[in-house]
């Protein structure tokens, strides 16, 4: 029989690694299943120049500080290296190349089916595939007839392939602004947005903005929704957009065969359109459990499934705080989830042990009563047979001797047992 784990974590990115750390600290049997070839989640697939919008000081997972000068803003490659060293440092049990296809109930346990690594059984599941599993790709009018290049920010790597091209970047968040400003150095770029861009100073009163978010309590409020997340800016991006590098316009109305049509009706040829329109959690593998709503979102509250007992989440946007989907926030969320998960395992194991004990006691009671009834029945039958034999002998024996013999046989059969009674009194019957 295959091992039954206390918990299996789906994903070995920042959310999965933080969860693995806390499971290890709790002394639970666990495993991380990672679809990629190495731990790190989505980080290796982001564009080359990406930099964190939090300093190294506020970009650490639990138990291991981000290396280097704490007030700098690490780049993508540094984040990838940090996550891989984190997994190695704590020797977290990770199965790579394990893409989860579906999860189903198997009695008291979950059965996890992967594409290439077989099946696994576990008491609990933590979905830690995070927020960046599936690019959010809009479908705008005329997009199917456009002959230029259309891609998502997840596919963008560096500016050189777009040298001297006409590019439109769609979106108003951190990724859209970072990519737009970078591309504007080699191409003619427009940043197309549905809403005005909101900026938040990267530093205030000598401290990084994440210091103020964390220690003011604003982290735990819902003052920002997914559409209004500001661009964290040291002044670089606001200055670039004010100088028209890139320029900014309301999003175009539709695609044409060779470009776009702006809201004022003007047509413009465009070589490429890059959608920096965010991501959606990849949770399709939970569909058969009934864990998702009609839009594909998790039915959960603060990381605990409200639809499936034993199912948990780490890394969802605003799961508990504004930082829940970031390096800064996943550690605290993972700790809370593992505490709930551990209590769930304890209750489940106690319940199972109690039911098993009750069932064993019932089986033993039934066997004892059944055998006792069977023995008494056999003794009664033999006593009756002996009585009949004695009655036949009475014809040739005195009355008083016969009655004494009946009483003796009855008492012996009751107290000494069937075999003893027969052995003791058969000779007497023969002599009678």
Question: What does it look like?
Answer:
With 432 residues, this protein is α/β, with parallel strands linked by helices. The protein has 3 domains: 4-133 and 281-355, FAD/NAD(P)-binding domain, CATH 3.50.50; 135-275, FAD/NAD(P)-binding domain (3-Layer(bba) Sandwich), CATH 3.50.50; 371-431. The protein has 8 helices and 23 strands. It has helices at 14-25, 76-89, 174-183, 209-216, 236-242, 327-394, 399-415, 418-431, and strands at 4-10, 30-34, 94-96, 100-106, 109-114, 119-127, 134-135, 149-152, 166-170, 188-193, 199-201, 203-204, 207-208, 231-233, 247-250, 254-255, 259-261, 267-269, 272-275, 279-280, 300-301, 304-305, 311-313. The strands form 7 sheets. Strands 1, 2, 3, 4, 5, 6 and 23 form a 7-stranded mixed β-sheet that branches. It has a 5-stranded parallel β-sheet with strand order 8-19-9-10-15, with helices on one face. A 3-stranded antiparallel β-sheet has the order 16-17-18, with no helix packed on it. Helix 1 (14-25) packs across helix 6 (327-394) and helix 7 runs antiparallel to helix 8. The chain is elongated and about 120 Å long.
């Amino acid at each position: 029989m295959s091992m039954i784990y206390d918990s299996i974590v789906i994903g070995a990115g920042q959310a999965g690694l933080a969860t693995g750390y806390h499971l290890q600290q709790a002394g639970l049997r666990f495993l991380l299943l990672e679809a990629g070839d190495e731990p790190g989640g989505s980080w290796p697939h982001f564009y080359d120049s990406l930099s964190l919008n939090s300093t190294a000081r506020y970009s650490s997972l639990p138990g291991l500080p981000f290396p280097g000068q704490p007030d700098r803003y690490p780049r993508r490659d540094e984040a990838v290296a940090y996550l891989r060293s984190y997994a190695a440092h704590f020797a977290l049990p990770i199965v790579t190349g394990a893409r989860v296809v579906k999860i189903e109930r198997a009695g008291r346990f979950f059965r996890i089916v992967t594409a290439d690594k077989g099946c696994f059984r576990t008491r609990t599941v933590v979905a830690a595939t995070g927020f960046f599993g599936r690019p959010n790709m809009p479908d705008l009018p005329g997009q199917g007839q456009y002959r230029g290049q259309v891609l998502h920010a997840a596919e963008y790597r560096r500016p050189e392939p777009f040298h001297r091209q006409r590019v439109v970047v769609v979106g108003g968040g951190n990724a859209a602004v970072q990519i737009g400003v970078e591309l504007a150095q080699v191409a003619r770029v427009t940043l197309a947005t549905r809403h005005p861009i909101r900026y938040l100073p990267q530093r205030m009163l000598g401290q990084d903005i994440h210091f103020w978010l964390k220690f003011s309590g604003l982290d735990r409020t819902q003052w920002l929704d997914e559409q209004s997340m500001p661009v964290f800016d040291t002044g670089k991006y606001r200055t670039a957009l004010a100088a028209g590098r890139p320029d900014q316009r309301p999003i175009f109305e539709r695609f044409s065969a060779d470009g776009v049509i702006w809201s004022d009706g003007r047509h413009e040829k465009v070589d490429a359109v890059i959608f920096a329109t965010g991501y959606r959690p990849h949770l399709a593998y939970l569909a058969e459990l009934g864990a998702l709503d009609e839009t594909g979102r998790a039915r959960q509250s603060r990381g605990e499934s409200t639809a499936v007992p034993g199912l948990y989440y780490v890394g969802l946007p605003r799961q508990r705080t504004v930082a829940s989907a970031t390096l800064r926030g996943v550690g605290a969320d993972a700790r809370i989830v593992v505490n709930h998960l551990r209590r769930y395992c304890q209750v489940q194991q106690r319940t199972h042990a109690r039911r098993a004990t009750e069932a064993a006691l019932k089986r033993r009671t039934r066997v004892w009563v059944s055998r006792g009834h069977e023995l008494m029945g056999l003794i009664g039958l033999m006593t009756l047979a002996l009585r009949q034999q004695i009655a036949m002998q009475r014809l040739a024996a005195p009355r008083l001797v016969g009655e004494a013999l009946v009483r003796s046989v009855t008492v012996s059969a009751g107290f000494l047992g069937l075999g003893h009674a027969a052995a003791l009194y058969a000779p007497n019957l023969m002599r009678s």
